[in-house]
Amino acid sequence: MSAALGGLLILPALLFMTASVLKYELGVPFLYDGVEPLLGRLDSPVVLLGGLLSAAVINILAVVRLDCRREAERLVGTIAIETRGFNLIVLGISALLLGGLLGYLFLENFAPR
Asked: What's this model's pTM, rounded to 2 decimal places?
């Protein structure tokens, strides 16, 4: 369930970045030109970054288990990561897309001119 929801949340960013890379870096405009009216509504930072962050948080909560207990006057904590394949795939894709968007924002705004 959480992997499917995360997959839906990363779709706008995945579509935007794939279409943009194909058009502006590789010179293949067919995907960008075909979905340009849709991209006009989906290229908001709230939609792109919010969807990626939401997908990451939902899938982190689905695979990570935290435990904290006292043992012999010590506080012992454990972090367990469950191997749920689809959740980890969605988490990895959202991390890559988030890194790509944030890297682009940084390079575009702080590059010497």
From this structure: 0.82
